[in-house]
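User: Here's a structure from my thesis project, written as structure tokens. My advisor, Dr. K., wants to see whether a designed sequence matches the one we expressed. Can you design one independently, without my sequence as a hint?
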């Protein structure tokens, strides 16, 4: 999956929450993966160009909402950039 094969026009923007889930359960590749959970679906996410076998820098943002720009290859969202989103305040939270 080379980032060189995709241009800026292929880029999409997704907003969702980062969650940790087991990837490749009951296989030699089993590990804790970072998923972007969106209205459009759930995607394993990692930065473009990052080694898939090393720690994912997005892991520290688990539980937070982000907006990421990148592209999808199969089930993986390769993020070129991301920004931590602000939580939507609930109107009834002050009650």
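Assistant: Designed independently from the structure alone:
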């Amino acid at each position: 999956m080379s980032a060189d094969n995709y241009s800026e026009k292929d880029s999409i923007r997704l907003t969702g929450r980062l969650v940790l889930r087991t990837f490749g359960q009951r296989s030699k590749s089993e590990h804790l993966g970072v998923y972007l959970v969106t209205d459009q679906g759930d995607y394993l996410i990692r930065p473009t160009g990052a080694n898939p076998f090393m720690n994912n820098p997005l892991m520290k943002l688990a539980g937070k909402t982000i907006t990421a720009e990148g592209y999808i290859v199969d089930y993986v969202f390769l993020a070129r950039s991301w920004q931590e989103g602000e939580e939507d305040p609930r109107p009834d939270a002050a009650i």
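When you compare it with your expressed construct, this may help: The beta strands are 12-23, 31-38, 41-47, 65-73, 76-84.
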